[in-house]
């Protein structure tokens, strides 16, 4: 539909946290507050590679937004308990992104996670950025390539890839068709490989955004 928007941005990091591609649902629950605020069900998110990850202009993932919930809905829905971090669990449990909820006094909690401090106390930098919007984007229709990132057609790179921080809207017809029609025809959906930086777990201090 013409009302559908495609948001494209660069992944500076890819640990399996933002996006979190595990358990057959791709979630974007942290970072990218403006995209999480603006994007609606039916829109698509496109994440491409960065110089830091040695995969500039490569496609790391796409997701069609199939649900949009608040942090509190995400936290309290048993369906998404699998996305809550378990810091002494497996890597994919450690990188759980279901970390925020607000109590009845409107005070934020931040679970011990990739975005907290190492002792489990709140990392204020990450909290401040992540909670600029309360929205979590969810997808059951996603293609996450991770460390098996793919080449984009050369003629579409300039239409699809964002340069620098922030995001861009992809509006060129052929680029939209490639993302929303062609890729789903070629690949099976879901998590097709591990995240690029999946080997080790670290706490992200947030100061380097």
Report on the structure:
It is a single chain. This protein is α+β, with helices and mostly antiparallel strands and 209 residues long. It has 6 helices and 12 strands.
Query: Secondary-structure element sequence?
Result: EEHEEEHHEEHEEEHEHE
Q: Number of DSSP strands?
A: 12
pLDDT < 50 stretches: none
Tally of helical segments: 6
Which term fits the overall shape? Answer: globular
Give the distance, in angstroms, between the N- and C-terminal Cα atoms: 34 Å
Strand residue content: 15-25%
Bin the helical content. Answer: 10-25%
| Oligomeric organization of the protein chains | single chain
Computed Rg: 16 Å
Sheet with most strands? 7 strands, mixed
Structural class: alpha+beta
Let me know the average pLDDT: 96
Short description:
By secondary structure, this protein is an alpha+beta fold. It is built from 6 helices and 12 strands.
Tell me the layout of helices and strands.
Layout lengths: L5 E5 L15 E3 L4 H6 L5 E5 L9 E7 L2 E4 H6 L14 H4 L5 E3 L5 E3 L13 H7 L4 E5 L1 E4 L5 E2 L5 H4 L7 E2 L3 H14 L3 E2 L18
Parallel strand pairs: 1-3, 9-12
Antiparallel strand pairs: 1-11, 2-8, 3-4, 4-9, 4-10, 5-8, 6-7
Give keywords:
209 residues; alpha+beta; seven-stranded mixed β-sheet
